[in-house]
Design brief:
heterodimer; A: mainly alpha; Potassium Channel Kv1.1, Chain A; about 10% strand; elongated; disordered N terminus; B: mainly beta; Neuraminidase; four-stranded antiparallel beta sheet; 7 helices; globular; F-box family protein (chain B); F-box-assoc_dom_typ3 (chain B); At3g26010-like (chain B)
Chain lengths: ~170, ~400
């Protein structure tokens, strides 16, 4: 029967809902399939508790970063993607400079997407592991609250870890 | 950069997020980044962070061992035992640490990643230290007086981030009521890293002169001393109580005495191997938690290993009742399939899987070894009592 697939298609069509995510930084909007967006626990909680309107505003995340997040969610919502494919795709998403990664880790944290939080944190760790601690301090804008004496004492305790560093 | 500054500030202010990143760093970077700020230092040293970074406190990632044939400065060998995610973390482990002024340092025991060591120097007598080979931090124990019989480390991070050291010394001889029996008086002292001092535990006790208190095994929150002649004692560290541990009987007809070939702890299990006669077959016994007795955990036959390494079937030159192999360690996996033995056969260190009986070479150690004085060491020269499990941990000493 030729009409059977047609019927099925029609029956399933209303199931495929979409959501619109809107960056509140530059008002960019993204229309995504609901099952893709639901990988974010934050969005899932909003949808489950009927707090989500047609457009979900996403504060503090730029369109550029939101696009990366959605790319990640799309990849991981695809049931036919192999583990290897996902690994490669993840590596592509996090092949960014440190400040983009920091934006991305915040977004993953805010939207509560565990996998993205993990790969981004790992990439940040890999990017900073061979840097001198002064550079790390600068990247994260951490104020050095040690006195010179205290800092020397902490450093002396782990002198071996500073081999090859000034 | 300024467009990012708000994100940077948000990350920097979020301890959970910073910890999420720091937890993925190799040890060397972590130790360096303690210098970033006081806040980072405290993040890196919280017990919670330490537990999260190495969630399996029984995960043995390598083995340190040295030759039992040499008394002075034996070369310390390290072999990695797992395909770790951070191979660089193991690479630095070859030098334990630098103790100022120490001429030599030897490991006495290992316990969940911490080592108890002794060192000699020109200036002082033997000194004892607790060392973390992962962070290379060490703490020197306050001096002990008396005729020291042995020192054992008690540390279990699942119970407490603090460790204890149990020391046994022989007290000045008092007139024994039964002078014809070779009895001795011993006193136990306990050092606690929480208080930083030694204190006597209980009254002196009497035990057979032959009692060995040298290398106790920490298991079941007690130090367990295996004794080849006479009673084997244990000392519960929590309630400071001595007990007698049962030992399987010597098989009938064995006149040469007890033949311990391995004892040690892994993943909360206490194991014992005795081998009588030149055989490749043996039983690994495991102790019941309530000390009620031993049960057979593994039946091992190294026949296949012997076919691949026929030298191991030769008798030991200095003990004709033994085949030429030694068990360096028994390491239990999280699942039973992951359990294995580290074996020493002439010229090789092997890993023998207890579940599927497969084996592979880990490292060459040379068929015989000539030390700097021209003394030739035997082909079997590494034993369990000089082999120490390396578990990566960030606990402070």
């Amino acid at each position: 029967m030729a009409s059977a697939p047609e019927n099925e298609k029609n029956a399933s069509a209303p199931e495929k809902k979409t959501l619109t995510l809107k960056s509140m930084i530059n008002n960019e909007e993204f229309v995504v399939d609901e099952h893709v967006a639901l990988q974010s626990v934050t969005i899932k909680n909003m949808v489950d508790s009927d707090c989500a309107g047609d457009v979900i505003p996403v504060p503090t995340i730029s369109g550029e970063i939101l696009a990366l997040v959605i790319e990640y969610c799309k990849n991981h919502a695809n049931p036919s993607a192999s583990e290897d494919d996902l690994k490669k795709a993840d590596a592509g998403i996090v092949a960014k400079d440190i400040y983009t990664l920091i934006d991305l880790v915040l977004a993953a944290n805010f939207l509560d997407i565990k996998g993205l939080l993990e790969v981004t944190s790992q990439k940040i760790a890999d990017s900073i592991k061979d840097l001198p601690h002064q550079d790390v301090r600068e990247i994260f804008g951490v104020e050095n609250d040690y006195t010179p004496e205290e800092e020397a004492a902490v450093r002396a305790e782990h002198d071996w870890a500073f081999e090859g560093f000034p | 950069m300024s467009e990012h500054s708000s994100s940077v500030d948000q990350v920097a202010a979020n301890d959970d997020l910073v910890a999420e990143i720091l937890i993925r760093l190799p040890v060397k970077s972590l130790m360096q980044f303690k210098s970033v700020s006081k806040r980072w230092l405290s993040l890196i040293t919280t017990p919670h962070f330490i537990r999260c970074r190495n969630p399996d406190p029984s995960y043995v990632s390598g083995l340190f061992f040295y030759s039992s044939m040499r008394r002075l400065n034996p070369e310390l060998i390290f072999i990695p035992l797992q395909n770790d995610k951070n191979p660089t973390d193991n690479a630095y482990s070859t030098t334990l640490t630098t103790l100022p002024g120490a001429l030599s340092i030897s490991i006495l025991s290992s316990c969940y990643g911490l080592f108890c060591c002794s060192s000699y120097s020109h200036a002082t007598d033997r000194q004892f230290h607790i060392l973390n080979p992962t962070t290379k931090q060490f703490a020197s124990l306050p001096k002990l007086q008396g005729e020291l019989q042995g020192l054992s480390l008690a540390f279990d991070p699942s119970r407490s981030p603090h460790y204890k050291v149990v020391c046994v010394w022989r007290t000045i001889s008092v007139l024994s009521t039964k002078p014809y029996q070779s009895e001795c008086h011993f006193q136990i002292e306990i050092y606690s890293s929480e208080t930083g001092s030694w204190r006597a535990s209980g009254d002196p006790f009497t035990a057979d002169l032959n009692n060995q208190f040298l290398s106790g095994v920490y298991w079941n929150n007690a130090i367990n001393w295996f004794n080849s002649s006479g009673e084997s004692l244990y000392f519960n560290v929590e309630d400071e109580r001595l007990g007698v541990m049962p030992i399987p009987p010597i098989p009938p007809g064995e006149w040469s005495g007890r033949q311990f070939r391995y004892y040690g702890e892994s993943r909360g299990h206490l194991h014992l191997v005795e081998i009588y006669g030149p055989t490749t077959q043996f039983v690994v016994h495991e102790m019941e938690r309530d000390y009620s007795g031993w049960f057979v955990k593994y039946q091992v036959d190294l026949h296949e290993v012997g076919l691949a390494f026929p030298d191991m079937l030769q008798r030991l030159s200095w003990d004709l009742t033994c085949c030429s192999f030694a068990i360096l360690s028994l390491i239990r996996g999280e699942e039973d399939e992951g359990s294995f033995l580290v074996l020493h056969v002439p010229g090789k260190i092997l890993r023998y899987n207890l579940a599927d009986k497969s084996f592979k070479e880990l490292r060459d150690v040379g068929p015989e070894h000539c030390d700097s004085n021209g003394v030739i060491e035997d082909s079997i020269r590494y034993f369990w009592f000089h082999a120490f499990q390396y578990i990566e941990t960030l606990y402070c000493v």
